[in-house]
Write a structure and sequence with these properties.
The chain is built from seven helices and no strands. It is an all-alpha fold and 151 residues long.
Length: 151
């Protein structure tokens, strides 16, 4: 089995386990962290490309895991975070990493957000190096070892 097959299998397993665990995390802090992670993935290459933003928004809206949250709330927060990254990527990134950091004392929620980042990043069939780097940085923000996620 090639490395890509391992990644696809891992993402599929994460997605299944997330469906059962995310419902217990239905709170604003977790929702905001999920959207911060998704915005960071959409802008992983340092720019907020309109096509990537649309693709990520569609993935969010169609993601079974995130359906526990009102779609309008997710869309609004995702747009807000993408706008921050688009206005000033470096400052926006710091701001979104801080949103993620609010989960550092909630390891179960932090793990779920990291897994959502991996699922969203790999949804197009290519979990590229820029996306992996962002997820790794997110791991550090929430005080989780990136090796736990094969990063």
């Amino acid at each position: 089995m090639g490395i890509w097959d391992n990644i696809k299998s891992s993402v599929s397993n994460m997605s299944s386990s997330l469906k059962t665990s995310v419902a217990k995390f239905k709170n604003k802090e977790f929702s905001d962290a999920c959207m911060a992670m998704c915005a960071l993935i959409a802008a992983a290459d340092g720019t907020v490309d309109a096509t990537e933003r649309q693709k990520t928004a569609a993935l969010i809206m169609n993601n079974d895991i995130l359906k526990i949250f009102p779609a309008d709330d997710l869309r609004s927060k995702f747009d807000e975070y993408c706008n921050k990254l688009g206005t000033d990527y470096d400052f926006g990134k710091i701001s979104l990493i801080q949103v993620l950091g609010k989960l550092q004392n909630k390891p179960d929620q932090a793990r779920a957000v990291i897994q959502i980042g991996i699922v969203i990043g790999g949804a197009d069939g290519n979990f590229d190096q820029a996306e992996r780097k962002i997820v790794k940085e997110a791991c550090h923000a929430v005080k989780l070892n990136p090796a736990e996620f094969d990063l």
